Amino acid sequence: MSDDALVTREQRGNISVLTMVYRPYNLLGPKLINAIVEQIEEAKKAGSPAIVLRSGLRHFSAGADLDIFDKRVEQGTGDTGGENRRLSGVEFLRFMNCCRFR
Questions:
Q1: pLDDT confidence of residue 69
Q2: Which of 2, 56, 77, 80 has the CB geometry, 3.0–4.6 Å to 19, for a possible disulfide?
Q3: How many CB atoms lie within 10 A of CB 12?
């Protein structure tokens, strides 16, 4: 695992433990969501029946990354094309709700 990873994954028995380390506050935005989704997919491939999502920082998360909105206002667009999103916020919530590990 690289030192610049935003989310790390370790196996504890058959459980995958994902640790968010997106400094300074684990702000939820495209970068962190993409990293979480990637590690969930790896956990699923590893056959984990359950996943624990935790923070390696002082707090779990300080909420949404509001810089995204500032960038869009500066661009004068709602375009998300330059953000390399794997999922939108709503799609991420659906993904998390639909993930069933059996």
A1: 73
A2: 56
A3: 9
**Which helix H or strand E contains 53, and what residues bound it?**
strand 50-55
Global pTM reads 0.74
Residue 24, preceding peptide bond in cis (omega within 30° of 0): yes
**3-state secondary structure labels for all residues of 28-49:** ECHHHHHHHHHHHHHHHHCCCC
pLDDT digits (tens, 9 = 90+) for 74-97: 776 655 555 666 666 667 767 666
Dihedral sign (CA 93, 41, 31, 79): negative
Interatomic CA distance for residues 74 and 49, integer angstroms:
43
Helix H segments across 46-102?
A: 67-75, 89-98
